[in-house]
Task: structure prediction
Amino acid sequence: MVSISHESPQETRARLRDVLADADFEVLPGTWAYHEYPAGPVPQPSAEALALVRDAQSWSVLEPARGGEAEVFGVLAFHFPSASDNSGFVGWLAGELKERLGTGVAVLCGYNSAQGGIYDYWLVPVQLLGEARAHVRSLAAEADADGSP
Result:
């Protein structure tokens, strides 16, 4: 569910650090890449595929890298508690990662009612994965250090 919040930028940052600290966070093993398929019938992605997206001209499947892809990603995964007001999370964390690492991100969202609802897969260039993981953990630790609920 999408929440509507009216708060100062400082309140937003504090709330979203708390959201981050409460989220189930993991780094998915392996490296990931998009593989393209012609438009038309739905392609058969690998069982490990994370996403299947299309536009008018092609299908794009995010799945384990095979080697030789132009862009290869590491994936950060977040599952949020059901009562969590995570509105603004994508913009906030994307800004944090851009400022710290100099990189943009790609974010794919899904829904799993058994795990609280909304979840995110964040794609970062594989060469920055370790730094991205460390920065996410430091932001979550800031919330814990502030004594947030």
